[in-house]
Specification:
Helix 2 packs antiparallel against helix 4 and helix 2 packs antiparallel against helix 6. The chain has one domain. It is built from 8 helices and no strands. The chain has 173 residues and is mainly α.
Length: 173
């Protein structure tokens, strides 16, 4: 968390200085992706065998961890950026779900991959409605009124959280 907050603030601040609102949205998506990527490294313990055999219920702790990542990133970026708060909340939830999904599929060390790729694609490709597959791929950089972006973010948030809560991070080694 020591590095996530200043990195998000700096990146979101650069986006807030832009005159065009689209740049504020894409920079906010990048700032969120960076914050989720840094904090996503904590989506798993240092000792996978201990986590797999502990006699405590992990699902509530995992849910709290995901909620903390989403709330922290959304709060920091909302305070700094000029992007609409709804876009920031949508992107924070979707990117956190992607980090949870990546931790489940690839392990905690690679939990950063899906949020960073999504943030970079959304920032690098313009938000155009056609073709629809590209529109869905760039969901994090879409305008606030995009139903497709909201639906995509919700699917990623629910799918990633469900996978992470039920299976936990992938054990490597």
């Amino acid at each position: 968390m020591l590095w996530a907050v200043p990195a998000m603030v700096l990146l979101a601040w650069f986006g807030a200085a832009q005159a065009e609102p689209r740049h504020a949205v894409t920079t906010a998506a990048l700032a969120l992706a960076l914050g989720v990527a840094i904090l996503g490294n904590g989506l798993g313990g240092a000792d996978p065998s201990l986590e797999a055999t502990a006699a405590i219920r992990w699902a509530p702790r995992r849910a709290l961890h995901l909620a903390a990542i989403a709330v922290l990133t959304a709060t920091v970026v909302t305070v700094v950026t000029t992007a609409p708060a709804g876009v920031v909340l949508r992107d924070a939830a979707g990117l956190t779900g992607l980090a949870a999904l990546a931790a489940t599929l690839f392990g905690r060390r690679l939990a950063w991959t899906l949020p960073v790729v999504t943030g970079c694609v959304s920032a690098g490709i313009p938000a155009i409605p056609e073709p629809f597959a590209l529109y869905l791929l760039t969901w994090a950089g879409q305008p606030p009124d995009s139903v497709a972006a909201l639906t995509t973010a919700a699917v990623f948030a629910v799918t990633g959280a469900a996978a992470y809560l039920t299976r936990g991070p992938r054990r490597i080694g």
